[in-house]
Specification:
Layout (H helix, E strand, L loop, with lengths): L3 E9 L6 E2 L7 H14 L1 E7 L9 H4 L6 H17 L2 H9 L2 E7 L13 H8 L3 H6 L5 E6 L4 H14 L5 E8 L3 H8 L11 E6 L1 E8 L5 E5 L12 H5 L7 E4 L21 E4 H5 L9 H9 L4 E8 L5 E8 L2
Parallel strand pairs: 3-7, 4-5, 4-6, 10-11, 10-12
Antiparallel strand pairs: 1-8, 1-9, 2-3, 6-8, 9-13, 12-13
């Protein structure tokens, strides 16, 4: 059985305001990538919401070098919330069971972009947050996945395999997204140019999330699909839903969502699923954006159904997973 259950999860974002990015001659390469990213995504500008922004600093610089300690503290808070959402019996079972821990982020060693003076904090960001390993009593297995936009999708596939093979009883995935402007623009400028998208503002939101998976039944049942690369390199609703007629909602992650709307004929289907652009609804969080579909279900699902969450890539292919839910 390849299906797994999402036993508990928590996603945290900053309480700070949104700040508009302004290109500067002091950061020439960053400004160049910004212009390319704006062109690729057909946007008018870029807002950022980051952990640790200090309002006492110059507004145009605070989003480049915010305090990293708030980001680290948010990891701890998300893990604690996810753990406490489990009933006491399940928490005790997790502590005494075979538990794996997967730490996933987009950039890998991103400590170089922070004003860090502590080697311990560098290790937390660049390798593994050992305080979280202790929190979940992880003794069996721990690793880090660096996959840029697809880090969470890859970690989710690993969790599904480990649980279906009965290697572990629980798998904890901690996912972090640090919206470093230079890296955000570098990723966005490589996507397929989105000329059909209405011109608007892009929004990048830093988030951290903790997700606990097991084989014990819960309201959210998750199943990962295989990576797909359509022969035409065009992702349409027919392509995404051909193998499943019972999909009621289609959640799309990423800034380039025009790939789903190229075929007007798709809109003629009577059974067309509801389409939710997660990046436009909640702000883009890179590798963590696909998980925002579960927040949508938690807030809006009125009846049982099935959501397919899709993360397109720059080559015309996509990763996806399905979530069956019962409110």
């Amino acid at each position: 059985m390849n299906k797994v259950y999402l036993s508990s999860f928590s996603v945290i974002e900053p309480e700070e305001e949104f700040y508009l990015y302004y290109p500067s001659w002091l950061n020439v390469w960053e400004s160049h990538l910004y212009n390319r990213a704006i062109k690729s995504t057909n946007a008018q500008g870029w807002y950022f919401k980051r952990f640790g922004c200090d309002k006492a600093l110059y507004a145009r610089e605070m989003i480049r070098k915010p305090a990293y300690i708030n980001y680290i503290e948010a990891m701890e808070q998300a893990a604690e919330q996810a753990l406490q959402q489990l009933v006491a019996k399940e928490r005790m079972r997790l502590m005494k069971s075979r538990t794996a821990f997967i730490y996933a982020d987009a950039w890998g060693e991103s400590g170089l972009f922070e004003n860090i003076t502590s080697a311990l904090h560098v290790a937390v960001i660049d390798t593994l947050p050992k305080n979280l390993l202790k929190k979940f009593s992880v003794k069996e297995f721990a690793c880090k996945v660096r996959g840029e936009q697809h880090a969470f999708m890859q970690a989710l596939r690993m969790a599904q395999d480990y649980l279906s093979w009965d290697v572990f009883d629980f798998v904890v995935i901690c996912v972090t997204y640090r919206a470093i402007p230079l890296l955000v623009f570098s990723t966005a400028e490589s996507v397929a140019q989105d000329k059909s998208r209405d011109s608007q503002m892009n929004i990048s939101v830093e988030r951290v999330g903790c997700f606990i998976f097991s084989q014990r039944k819960s309201a959210l049942q998750v199943e990962c699909g295989k990576y797909a690369l359509p022969a035409s390199h065009k992702i349409t609703l027919d392509t995404l839903c051909a193998d499943n007629a019972d999909i009621t909602q289609l959640a799309v992650a990423g800034l380039s969502t025009n790939l789903l709307y190229r075929q007007g004929a798709d809109n003629q289907h009577a059974s067309m699923p509801d389409i939710i652009s997660l990046s436009e609804k909640y702000g883009d969080s890179g590798c963590l954006t696909p998980a925002l579909g579960w927040i949508y279900l938690d807030r809006h699902a009125a009846s049982s159904g099935k959501m397919r969450t899709v993360m397109p890539d720059a080559l015309g292919g996509y990763h996806y997973f399905d979530t069956r839910y019962e409110p």
